[in-house]
Amino acid sequence: xxxxxxxxxxxxxxxxxxxxxxxxxxxxxxxxxxxxxxxxxxxxxxxxxxxxxxxxxxxxxxxxxxxxxxxxxxxxxxxxxxxxxxxxxxxxxxxxxxxxxxxxxxxxxxxxxxxxxxxxxxxxxxxxxxxxxxxxxxxxxxxxxxxxxxxxxxxxxxxxxxxxxxxxxxxxxxxxxxxxxxxxxxxxxxxxxxxxxxxxxxxxxxxxxxxxxxxxxxxxxxxxxxxxxxxxxxxxxxxxxxxxxxxxxxxxxxxxxxxxxxxxxxxxxxxxxxxxxxxxxxxxxxxxxxxxxxxxxxxxxxxxxxxx
Amino acid sequence: xxxxxxxxxxxxxxxxxxxxxxxxxxxxxxxxxxxxxxxxxxxxxxxxxxxxxxxxxxxxxxxxxxxxxxxxxxxxxxxxxxxxxxxxxxxxxxxxxxxxxxxxxxxxxxxxxxxxxxxxxxxxxxxxxxxxxxxxxxxxxxxxxxxxxxxxxxxxxxxxxxxxxxxxxxxxxxxxxxxxxxxxxxxxxxxxxxxxxxxxxxxxxxxxxxxxxxxxxxxxxxxxxxxxxxxxxxxxxxxxxxxxxxxxxxxxxxxxxxxxxxxxxxxxxxxxxxxxxxxxxxxxxxxxxxxxxxxxxxxxxxxxxxxxxxxxxxxxxxxxxxxxxxxxxxxxxxxxxx
Lengths: 308, 338
Known about the structure:
The complex is a heterodimer of chains A (308) and B (338). With 308 residues, chain A is an alpha/beta fold. Chain A has helices at residues 40-56, 71-80, 98-112, 132-139, 194-200, 206-219, 226-242, 291-303; strands spanning 5-9, 11-13, 36-38, 60-65, 84-88, 117-121, 143-155, 158-165, 168-175, 178-182, 248-250, 270-276, 285-287. Chain A has a nine-stranded mixed β-sheet, sandwiched between helices. Chain B folds into two domains: 6-201, Rossmann fold (3-Layer(aba) Sandwich); 222-337, Rossmann fold. Chains A and B meet through helix 3, helix 4, strand 7, strand 8 and strand 9 of A and helix 3, helix 4, strand 7, strand 9 and strand 10 of B.
């Protein structure tokens, strides 16, 4: 029996590989210098969905909310084997916290049609909150299983799952439909398929084209104006439309989202303050790396009753 | 009579055993409640609650909201969410705290979504303070400052929820100090009226396995930790020997764990255990923010590294620039002849 899966994925700055170049002189992170990547655990979620489809049949749809540049994540999803992809983008979604994000995603999921399983990564590496999955499940009135390691079987309308719990593991069985969040150790995401890469790499959306045109004009040393951008982007957009290379894009109106529940307005949490981690200057004493130096250190630690 | 506006703590238990983080939150919650001059309450969904309730009160709770049901022996999302949100609706606390455990991170967002409340994940500190809206249009008194690392641990963010109640947060295990229990303390027990339904129990637990961690990092007075610089599983033996000699335990950085030198139970840092021992040896650990976040509260830090510019020296009290394979034997020799 086939099962339809919807995968929730997010494009994130690659916080795991923050190097010296990515730090500004004042010690803060230069986000622009960080490459945007497919959130790692969302890739595990997509892999799990593709495995379900390969085993039982059905369709895999990837939904992402983000700026037009997130088209890249959708193209990658297509290279990996997703059947359908949707970009949820709108300036009105900006500054959304996890509650507003899960509301927008739940509206999009309702519009996307019939599904059996919704999957997402356990958490995203930029915020590490792990909240959007359970919050989306609640908004859709679905049961949830978080920290999923493995789908054992789907039978008689029920799914059997292995998951991590604190200090151990658990095997659970729950009826469909439901939402799963998937850990990074669940599987090894497959590589891109070359044929699909060639097929989908020129897929794009109007907003992404306009963004690229804007950068191009800036690179030429000119100030981009809206009419300039529109004029240059038009033939490119027309060509993409004619060739069927446009990705599905939904804005707040397309998913019938209520204005006061999205973006900053729909977000109860507010960032009061951001501090870069600055190494606190401690009263560091250098110890000579020789017998005498080390001996003096041990003596001091013993005298201060730090070691017995 | 239920006190409104309290500070409430979700008590995580499994088969009657309370999670450490819940007791840590009661201790911190007590301080917040005193600062706000309100009651501290706990919410306990459990199979049997008597002992749990007694411990909550001894650690500082004034009121304990209890739902007893044989089906609440182990955590499951739907019934626990129903019970806890019923307690919140009834008691209307201004703050609700959860441990940032697998259970807390499964449950808290579910409830926050239902109540349309703000929730901050994985806090490492909680404070009470005022807040002025950007532009100064509106002033808020005594909000909960929810303080947490973000962006891979490279920044510390302070989050507030000015308009919505309750203000909710999950808090990392081990970051709040546990204060001693006082068995003479008195408190009230209040039943939660939550009608659990059969459909709340559609998820069946077929099998469950829990084992205690092979090492108790949190309880150790001395932690000897190794990083990528240790170089191999074999070389970690030196750290075990040294730790054994000084009565400590062995910790590790994420890269040592990821390289397979040592098991994940030993990991110290943002994704591992947070420790605050009397003495912390950082051996061959460069000191990524994620690691520092889990050990910088140690009373004394000794760093051994071949790179004198390693960030770990920025928070160390004693720095030794050298090869740990030479320095640790020297330390052992000096300790033996102390």
